[in-house]
Amino acid sequence: MEARDVLARTTLFADVLSDRQLQDLAARSKVYDVGKDRVLMTEGDFGSSMFIIVSGKVDVTVAGARHPNREVAMLGPGDIFGEMSLMTGARRAATVTAMEPTRVVEITKVALETVLTHSPELVDRFGAFLAKRRAELDEIADDEHASRILGVRTDEIVGAMRRLFGRG
To answer: Rounded to an integer, what distance in angstroms lies between the CA atom of residue 27 and that of residue 87?
Structure first.
């Protein structure tokens, strides 16, 4: 499956970007396979990319004082992860590990910059998406984890995105 097909089926991008913008973003994205038990990102690290799952599944875990390596989600085809760190500069909020052979589309900051320049509405769409994701993380993370990892308050998300991508 091509990156363009995945992006076209991902509401976050498909509802905002033109066909040309989808093609441009796909050309700058990478599709690759990862083996079972491969860690795709580690909690606390800085991140410069996000991922869309094409096939397979990943386990999302968070560490905390009371619950080391607590599973908070199992993600599969069509799900997105890594977007909070990519879009705001915050550290990774979770560790993500492939639970079976998994195919992903990786979208880097560099790949997204050109698209964001020509599609300011995507910044707003990402802002709403990230605010929702932040609320979900707040619900599952204990207070120690939320303050240590999440870093960016919900009302600061769009501002952090604009600063990181040089748009404000």
So the answer is: 20
